[in-house]
Amino acid sequence: MNTLSWQAAREAAHQAGLDAILPTRRQKPADTDGLTLAAPLTALTDLPAFPTSSVDGYAVRGTGPWKLTGRVLAGETPPPLAEGCAVEVATGAMVPDGLEAIIRLEDAKLEGGTVSGAARPNPEWREVGEEATAGQVLLPAGVEISPTVIGLAAAAGHDTLEVRPRPRAAVLVFGDELATEGVPGRGRVRDALGPLLPPMLRHVGAAPVPGFSPRGPIEDTLDSHVAALRAALDDADIVCTTGGTMQGPVDHLHAALEALGAEYVVDSVAVRPGFPMLLAALPGERFVVGLPGNPQSAVIALVSLVVPLIAGLTGRRLRQLPRVKAGVDIPGRGTDTHLALVRLGKYGSVVPSSHRGSAMLRGLAQSEGFAVIEPGKDAKEGDTVLFLPIPGDHR
Ligand SMILES: Nc1nc2c(c(=O)[nH]1)N[C@H]1C(S)=C(S)[C@@H](COP(=O)(O)OP(=O)(O)OC[C@H]3O[C@@H](n4cnc5c(N)ncnc54)[C@H](O)[C@@H]3O)O[C@H]1N2
Ligand code: MOO
């Protein structure tokens, strides 16, 4: 077993994704929210494409008063403006060639077909190419497509975009002790990860495989593990398993991976909690991420391995983590990285959560993320530390 540092594990997961980068496809911009730009987004024309009035008013040429000769509405192409003349222009309309100023409606007087008034000091129209010139790169490849990116693509003239899709993900739950309904007791624990993981995977940019709700609990035999993994790998680019990452008496994950010809990209990480997490590459550019059974450790494995893997598969960079201030001293965990469960307080400072045991969900459900305490270090109150958010809608 080759234990990697937490940073090295994230980078290895990202590189493994890049090595198996998903093929591109073309889609209408409106259907691309959450996908990734596979090619730079360029301006297909100058932006604005024509000189555009930024106010409702009168475009004028020469010294006033001016003779009103017509009106240009948005969407029309005006003839050139003659000396001593004015045309009424709407916001967003193309301004006529030859204009020297635009007088706002509220600053103008119209009497008997004659316009008078004074223009404000700054030009009230946008010049061609002010925002971008034709062919200019507006965004590089590898950018996550957000609603504002969709708007920019449409504004720049694109009818389709070259994108990488969301990786397809499936969840397999291991553990005979798990119950999928009812109150826990008598040695049986409710499966918390089966319900937690699909929405979290959606939040980090994966697409849960249609029709594949979490499968499990999978029977604690090697044959059942192999069969379940094989079936899930047929459908998904990434299969997340839960539990069985240690090599306990009924832990079959490692043996099942071996039977399927897997190669480890990551086999345990020097991080607490979450140490036994793993990432294996399987034939056909498929991946299995072994999330430990303790729920907090499973979430840590997801943000540590699945998020970088998805970034690689979609051609994104590994995201730079923001920094926050430690609101109190936060101890390290010796030679391991400590991902300390924290709540975000006022002014961007973090404090450790209560009920933060790795088997608990109570603290996890009330926390915004993890403070990254580097190996061999403690964070003192006031130190800045990296912050790893817990995926969810409210952040
Ligand atoms: N001898 C050692 N034992 C353990 C070590 C160790 O270093 N030496 N490490 C501990 C750590 S750290 C973790 S994390 C766990 C990892 O265990 P597994 O991934 O093999 O998971 P399980 O043994 O199957 O389960 C652990 C724990 O989590 C509960 N669990 C499992 N699945 C779910 C689920 N879907 N929903 C809710 N809870 C779940 C399970 O009941 C166990 O309590 O190993 C430690 N052991
Ligand atoms: O590292 Mo385990 O993953 O502490 O709970």
Topology:
Elements: E1 4-5, H1 6-19, E2 25-27, E3 36-37, E4 41-42, E5 52-53, E6 57-60, E7 66-72, E8 85-89, E9 101-104, E10 108-111, E11 114-117, E12 125-126, E13 137-139, H2 147-155, E14 161-164, E15 168-174, E16 178-179, E17 189-190, H3 193-203, E18 207-208, E19 215-218, H4 222-235, E20 238-242, H5 253-259, E21 263-267, E22 269-272, E23 278-282, E24 286-291, H6 295-313, E25 323-326, E26 337-344, E27 349-352, E28 369-373, E29 384-389
Parallel strand pairs: 1-22, 7-8, 15-18, 15-19, 15-20, 16-17, 20-24, 22-26, 25-27
Antiparallel strand pairs: 2-14, 3-14, 4-13, 5-12, 6-8, 6-9, 7-11, 10-11, 21-23, 23-24, 25-29, 26-27, 26-28, 28-29
The protein binds ligand LQZAQKY5 and molybdate ion.
Q: Can you walk through the features of this model?
A:
Residues 170-312 form the MoaB/Mog domain. InterPro entries: MoaB/Mog-like_dom_sf (IPR036425), MoaB/Mog_dom (IPR001453), MoeA-like (IPR038987), MoeA_C_domain_IV (IPR005111), MoeA_C_domain_IV_sf (IPR036688), MoeA_linker/N (IPR005110), MoeA_linker/N_sf (IPR036135). The chain has helices at 6-19, 147-155, 193-203, 222-235, 253-259, 295-313; strands at 4-5, 25-27, 36-37, 41-42, 52-53, 57-60, 66-72, 85-89, 101-104, 108-111, 114-117, 125-126, 137-139, 161-164, 168-174, 178-179, 189-190, 207-208, 215-218, 238-242, 263-267, 269-272, 278-282, 286-291, 323-326, 337-344, 349-352, 369-373, 384-389. Strand 26 and strand 27 (349-352) form a beta hairpin. The chain contains six helices and 29 strands. It has four domains: 4-22 and 166-313, Molybdenum Cofactor Biosythetic Enzyme, Chain A; 25-46 and 130-164, Molybdopterin biosynthesis moea protein, domain 2; 52-126, Molybdopterin biosynthesis moea protein, domain 3 (Molybdopterin biosynthesis moeA protein, domain 3), CATH 2.170.190.11; 323-389, Beta Barrel (Beta-clip), CATH 2.40.340. The protein starts with a strand and ends in a 6-residue tail after the last strand. Strands 15, 18, 19, 20, 21, 23 and 24 form a seven-stranded mixed sheet that branches. Molybdate ion binds at residues 272-275, 292, 294, 297, 358.
